[in-house]
Amino acid sequence: RQRADADLYDAKRRRRGLLPASLDTPEAEDLLRAITDGQLVVRYQPVVDLATGDLAGVEALVRWQHPRRGLLGPDAFLPLAEATGVVELLGARVLRAACHEVRAWQRRTGTRAGVAVNVSAAELAEPAYPARVLRALADSGLPAADLVLEVTETAFADVPTMTRSLRELRTAGVRVAVDDFGTGWSTLSRLDQLPVDVLKLDKSFVDRVVPGQGCTPVVDAVLAMARALDLAVTAEGVEHAHQVAALRDAGCDTAQGYHLQRPVPLDEVDLARRVRVPA
Ligand code: C2E
Ligand code: MG
Ligand code: MG
Ligand code: MG
Question: 106-121: per-residue pLDDT in tens?
Fold first, then answer.
């Protein structure tokens, strides 16, 4: 199976003349083996509705349960995965795991929370990507409306195949979020034409929200623009209670961050209210 995955991946890349950084290094071999051996695990971070305090969804975040080095975050292996092209296989595994785990969790707990999955530019460039997503939904039974695909702002740079795929998926009911919004501003001039539903306001903007001053002018401006374009906004990296209050009062829809809850195994996601709502 591992061999088959590796062969498939290699042959496909060679056909496309896209032979990536060498897979013949010990690190790359380790990573490919980890993916095919099931050493990747998914942690889930709650996304909270700021108006009601309810759990709105969770974001799936990949980890590598390394036999010697412990639980590794994506910073330790995503760059290599991107450079070697194995990120496509990694993404497919995370997507399937997230759909199946979240559907089982919805059945177990009765929660209506859905899941957001991070997608790399390489996956989206693959014409077979929409079919892969639709198959993961069909196989798991997860409703399309319960899936959000997060694409970083910089990944939107290559438009043609990507927007076609995203349009197809949105027609099926899947939502699309611009991740780390505001770090590139590359999407700003055509935001009204992109197939997106949600802006994820980058943590660097949330960091500048300090006590006693409401939101910053830039955050207020992003929220106003999102309202005008009928996009929802999720604030990332909320670490303090005053940020929750300021963002809620400014009309931000949802938020996630260590102040609310860190990424955890799905069964540890707090289903109770995390935000105090003013009477
Ligand atoms: P992201 O999608 O912007 O995810 C948010 C990151 O911020 C996560 O880091 C999360 O743990 C962290 N975070 C959340 N709240 C806070 C907070 O209050 N303070 C601070 N300091 N950090 C917070 P993580 O899990 O290390 O992931 C890093 C990045 O790796 C993600 O950024 C995403 O771009 C990428 N990534 C994660 N999982 C996947 C995946 O399955 N596929 C792909 N292609 N990329 C992934
Ligand atoms: Mg994300
Ligand atoms: Mg993000
Ligand atoms: Mg980020």
Answer: 999 999 999 999 999 8
What distance in angstroms lies between residue 238's CA and the mean position of ligand 4's atoms? 12
- β-pair partners for 41: 63
pTM given for the model? 0.93
Q: Which residues line ligand 1 (CB under 6 A)?
A: 45, 61-62, 73-75, 78, 91, 94, 118-120, 150, 179-180, 236-239, 256-258, 263
Task: Report strand pairing: 147-152 vs 175-181.
Answer: parallel
Complex-level ipTM = 0.98
Q: Is residue 151 a contact partner of residue 119, using CB atoms and an 8 Å limit?
A: yes
How far is the CA of 132 from the CAs of 126, 128, 146, 169, 245, in angstroms?
Answer: 10, 6, 16, 11, 39
Cβ neighbors of 41 (< 8 A, separation 6 or more) are: 62, 63, 64, 65, 71
